[in-house]
Amino acid sequence: MTTARRRGILAVVTAIILLALGAGVAFAVGDALGIRTESSAQMDPAAPVVPTVAEPVLPPSFTFDAPDSERVSVALEEVTDAVAAASATSGEAVLTVQIVPTLIATDDAYAVEGDGGAWLIRAGNEDGATRGIYALSNQIRAAAPLTELIGEHEASRLPLRLTDLGAVGVIPDPAEWEAGDDYSHASKAFAAVIQPEPPYVDETALAAAYDDFDGFLRHSLANGFNAVAFPGFVEYVTFDGAAGGPVYTEGDDHRDKALALRDAFAPFWDRADELGMKVFLRTDMLALTGPLDHYLTAEFGSLDTENPELWSVYTAGLDELYDAVPALDGVLIRIGEAGPVYDVGGWDYYSALEVTSVDAVRTMLEAFTGQAEASDREVIFRTWSVGVGAVGDMHTNSASYEAVLGGIDSPALIVSTKYTLGDFYTWLPLNDTLEQGEQRRVVEFQSRREFENFGAFPNDLGPEYQWALQQLLAANDQVEGVWVWTQDGGPWRAGPMSLYLKSGFWQLYELNTRLAAGLAQDADADVAGITAAWAREYFSADPATVEAIVAAMTHSRDAIAQGMYVPQFAEQRVFAIGLEPPPMMWIFEWDILTGDSAVLDVLYSIVRDSGPDGVEAAIASGADAVAAVEQMRELVSQTDASTWHSADIRAAFLDTLDYELDTLRLLEAYRAMILHQGQWHDTLSPEAHARWDADRVVYEERAAEHLDRYEGNIDYPAFNLTAAQLGVERGERDQAMAWFARVLLVLAVAWVVIGMLAARTRLVAKPGAAAARATWIASTRPWRARESTLGMLELDRWLLLIVPAGLLVATRAVQTSFLSWTHLAVIIGAWVVFALALRLLVWNRSPWPVIAAVGGVVMLRCIVTLFALSFTGPGGYWFAFWTDPVLRTVYITVAFALFAWVFVAAGWALAAQVRARRATGYVLAAVGAGLLVPAVVVGSAGLESALTLWNDEMGLLPWGLARILGITTYLEIPSETPWVAAAFGGALLVVGLLLALPWRQRRGAASVPS
């Protein structure tokens, strides 16, 4: 067999191997992306109804004959306040409250008797008595007949009704809301109270916060709640009882601060206890301070959350707290979210994501429940684990729930879970993990829906809440409570400055708080009646006006479900990158209208596949949402203004509907634009492109109007349209980039064809033809690279370098729509370092053979990319990548094989000059340098910063990802990755240099070519 034949066979085998490796990479990429969908079972609540609203009934003026206790007195004050809030009174009456344990002794059951001037509430304990009193006050506020309460009332269906802390201790400072880009989840509650220096507490601010807290407790009790989650834990603990201590050494102000804060807030907890409200300290785990972190690491070698002894430090802290403040009833623990987004700047109290394994969770719960049983307290454990570690999907996966919690049956343990199969989004199924388990269960609800513009839009969740609770109660008799978030969830200062009971249109989402509390007491309650009572209390006593408001609210869910979501996408469960993205991905995390290709292309493909007319049906749903809001506004605007409690509250209602209408019109236009853009990339249809262009004009007009009207408005803030505008700019360039790619493709193919034909035609004598011939031969038969460059003119030699290099730069520029200079700098920089390193290693030998080989393969690699770009530009390129597994696999296979062939061809071309070993060393050293230098640059700049800048320019992943979660955090990319790459590049460089050295042969050894 001739040498040429052997080399040809070896080249074919090498190409096959590289293609196989490329296919492996392609399948690995596809597996990592993991983009798939499955059908999702939707909730099926009853349709909302509008009740017939009766004329308002005036209450009598009451005097009281009741037990002398603070708890009963506060409840009676609520009755007095309700009567004072009425437009007038009708007669006088005596309200007698009797607590007779032998008559009614079941939890908070009560009975009402009376008529006219004498009313009696009987109960077996203070729970029942105060519940009856609050029912009376609520009836008065609803201007409903008191006679409707007559009779016996069973104990509440769910005995634990927990609320968050609302906006207690949060100062409504407009300056903190004006920018609208503070995505911190820290409430900054009590920020004015807690001081960095002794005495650590501002007494004036503390007194104001106490009054704030007392008012919140009174309001929550009237709504039907009997427990409150209070933030903090390590802030109040000295850890003096920790084994092996002290945690805080002498002179450490953490101890003094803990005692000061405990003394400051103990009266808050005592007050709640006095009024019959349980208090649970709400904390993330691990909760840390700097010294505590150091102590745990020193004591146990690391933050080893699977070590029971580590948890003994925390349980000792709980023993200390419960001894000091008996009013505390337990702790509420979350393990799934932690880190800087929840921390308050300047405070040495923080959390860390360390409880990430099944063993760690079980060890933690065994420690905490053991302590709770011994101290007669309770532990509420949240299953919110959001994809972290081995316990990442216990919130939504029944098998994972059982793996984590199965067999833990402590009577002190309560497990708390959101009612939706994921976060608080519309279109998600009911969370079936709430139907299982031996543990006591609590169902979480959110009143101020963070993902649906923080409660700034009307959003009546009553029918959905009722359906969910009824289903769960029928399926699991361990469900014994609710936890209702009146204010919390998501960033506090990135949306409207609506603070519960304090500022903004908080009355709007108060409805969901009332509904959740009412349904917790009676799952069969009349939700339409609760809505009407809410409308009467806050807006108008006039029956026609109340009916109009309730009628408007019946359209509120359709407006949000159709307008803020793309239903054909939202009704599917979507999986990607090992996670389950939420159903509202086009609005990324609260108020950012996204413009990235990953989300929008996948969204389009799911919409397209939803039915024969999926795209147009999805666009029509946006128009339906707009129509729903228009109908809501018409209902409210046609009410008699004189019947409202105040002109301001009516104006607020109309303003919020105007805001919703403007926002949904904006989303309607954006939806049409992105779907028609996807349709163009998918079908290559000029008509689809024309529709996209027309939609773009409409969207840009509405975006300008939206920003002009609402930008800087702290009550009705404009959506963040930065990412969307970046997407529009990229989309506007797609057609031009496609033409650039076509022109470059023709030129590149012409160069290759000239190279193929030059040896057999007169073309070889033309300027540049010899260069084209050399690149073709050297790229396909690199062992002939040296001979192909012999006798070349100076111009041809320089063309060997300039043409491939120019094509590479031009291809990458087109691929990024001339918008990502970061991408160009990194890619071209790596190639330049590679080329310079090779040139230095070749030194006094001719560089033209390796230049011809590398340049030729680069030409072929660019042709593949340009072909992919030539259809509809970079947008079409990425559309195929995200949505077409076959095209993605083929492209990656060929592209990777050609990329790897660059280095094989370079080594093969050099082997003719320096033999195989040294040629391999040259290439490895050059590759190592080409990897090392960019990696060091990226590492020095910071991986998160570099990825953020790159993604902003490329628009592949959501723009908000970096601003809110962090790309590296979300994708679980270690921050040290660039340095690992640099180390690997350095190792390649060293190995390559060692191989490149001329090794001296031992004397007498056989002469073997190297």
The shape is elongated
How many strands, which pairing sense, and closed or not: the largest β-sheet?
8 strands, parallel, barrel
Summarize the amount of helix as a percent range: 55-70%
Q: How are the strands ordered across the major sheet?
A: 7-8-9-11-13-14-15-16
Report low-confidence residues grouped into runs of 5 or more.
Answer: 1002-1010
**Count of helical regions:** 32
How much is the average pLDDT? Answer: 93
**Rg to the nearest angstrom?**
35 Å
Total number of β-strand segments? 19
Distance between the termini: 22 Å
Strand percentage lies at 5-15%
The secondary structure category is: alpha/beta
3D structure, described in words:
This protein has 1010 residues and is an alpha/beta fold. It is 55% helix and 9% strand. It contains 32 helices and 19 strands. The chain has an 8-stranded parallel beta barrel, surrounded by 4 helices. Strands 2-3-5-4-6 form a 5-stranded mixed beta sheet, with helices on one face. Strand 15 (440-446), helix 11 (462-475) and strand 16 (479-485) form a beta-alpha-beta unit. The radius of gyration is 35 Å and the shape is elongated. The protein starts with a helix and ends in a 14-residue tail after the last helix.
Short description:
With 1010 residues, this protein is of the alpha/beta class.
